[in-house]
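User: I'm putting together a small comparison set for a docking exercise, and I want a reference complex before I start. The sequence is below, and the ligand is adenosine-5'-diphosphate. Could you produce the 3D structure with the ligand included, as structure tokens?
Assistant: Of course. I'll restate your input first, then give the structure tokens for the complex.
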Amino acid sequence: MAEFVTDVGEKTLMGRRVPTSEMPRSAVLSRWVIGLGGLMMLPAITLLHPPITLRHFIVFATFMVLAEVFLAVRVGPGSFYSVSQTFLFVYFVLGGGVAAASMEAVVHFIAWLAQRFRRGVNQTPLFALFDIGHRVLGALLGAFVTAIFFSTGVLAHPISQHPVVALTIFGVSYFAFTVLFKSVAVWTRAGFPEMRSQLWPKTVLWDAISTSTCLPFAIVITLLGGAIRVGPAATVIGVFLAGVCLILKLNVNLRQGNDELKAVNRIGTLINATLDLSQLFSIIAIESSKVVPWDAFFIALAEKESPTIQIIFMTKGGTEITQRTIPRGAGLTGRAISTGELIVYEQQEREQGIDEEDTLSGKRRPRSIVVAPMKFGDKVIGAISVQSFQPFAYRPSQFGVLQTIAAQAAIAIRNAQLFASEEQARVERDEFFSLVTHEIKNPLTSVQGYADIIEMELSGGNVPEAQQAVEIVKSEARKILRLMEDLLDSSKMQAGKFSIRKEPTDLKSVVTTIARKYDGRTDHTFTLKIADDLPMVPGDETRLGQVVENLVSNAVKYSAAQTVVSITLWSDSSAVYCSVADKGLGISPEKLPLIFERFYRVEEGGSEVKGTGLGLFISREIVRMHGGDIRVKSRAGEGSVFTIELPRKAD
Ligand code: ADP
């Protein structure tokens, strides 16, 4: 009967703490409507039953309202026991079922309309009709059965005329009829989602408790007749019922706590047993739905320095429905991740409803959302969020459960990520070893081959041929040395142990030497444009030479023979610039941002050209250590221009 829990304590609402004893207004209103209904039927009842006074009913109605608001007991997900049921029965009996039941029908209908109007309703119209109808019918039939007993003289003995017998007959037949109607509804699957067969035993049990609790009261009150004093009677009834409710509440809370503890334990065991990330996500989603039921569930992951958060939405079956990327700090999730605090959101009545990026889009917006940050140590690695279309769907104990699940999930996800990155590192290590081995093996093989040739030519007295072979051996040995130096430089850079010595450097002479060296070696045409009055730059001559040489060697490697490689040197008031342009393969726009990464190589088109992917990485590091930068402009198939900018003054 009551659809809302009242014991929700304090909640954080969009960062603001509000006491949630402020029940949704529609819920309170509906209770008052029922209470007022009780008052409204007084004249009729008082006429029918003179011993029942106005004051009796004021007390009953007031108690009923208070009980509805403060003592509703949640007996399971989605099912409530409310003491008002007991009070209702009392005035059914006392008020002569028909009048009370008709009034009950009216007030229920008004309450339902009020809730529906305020969007707080969570009963289908059909069920609301059934809920009212089966009680009205039960009361009518109960009264009818009682009347038959008396009018037909079935019970001839004078004792049967006693009001206790009448009340008992009425009570039992009312109970029997209502249970019969409910059973028929469940068994014929009358289409009420609220009347699921697993709830049926509970419903019958509560009906039985409600009947057997109120019947003795009704009897005592009737027997005492006009002698009863409203105050003491109401106090006794009130204290007794409040006691019963509190005990029930405690019991229900204990049971829930126990169930939640077991569930959290189970989730912990399950998620720690898997290292597969997507499997992990689905286990977290499915298992948490058993303790914290949700209409939408997602896991958000925030990479360490990424400006975005990735959100993965899951279905009830644990499969991924959609992924979304939102800016860091956006939405409730962003807030939970940046503050590291649990966020509970309740859409207030009349409020437009949130239109956050972290809710699953669709016609229905969630009314209740809880976002629990996933913390690993003092770092927040993401968050999990449950969303429900029901208002006030989550209790404080469920917030705690979600936080515990989030903490366990954080450890499991971090483990799975570590495992995945360890795997990735292993693959990269293997690739690196095979690349280095390959890069060394080729020149070494030719060194060995040419050494044999030298030996052969020398023994044949062919000194010029032997000398030619010696040149090749030297060049191959240089390649190996260069590779070794690159590897050493890059690992020093990674470890932060790479250093440069800044001295006034003449870039003009650096560039000219390199151009001259390459001009003799390849079939490319070199053009050199050097501005007059080019100033010296503070820099490490050897390292800057290494950068320019690397750019020139790339220009030669990635362009066809006979094409032009132009080197230009110029300056402005703040910097000196050196550009190396070629008319070669070029680089496609999506690869451009990656070419300065360590070990990155553009394979397509250039796959026959050998390399390690270290040159540009080292070059950029060196230029940056000089306080400058390196830029590239390129078009696939047309060529590339790499430009180094070096500040004229040392920092
Ligand atoms: P490597 O040349 O040893 O592969 P680099 O770090 O020097 O390594 O270059 C990284 C990648 O950038 C190369 O694999 C190549 O695909 C691309 N690249 C560099 N320079 C050029 C260029 N002038 N033209 C086309 N592509 C280039």
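Confidence is low (pLDDT under 50) at residues 1-52, 68-84, 95-101, 118-123. Residues 554-555, 558, 582, 584-587, 595, 600-602, 606, 611-617, 640 surround adenosine-5'-diphosphate (CB under 6 Å).
User: Thanks, that's exactly what I needed.
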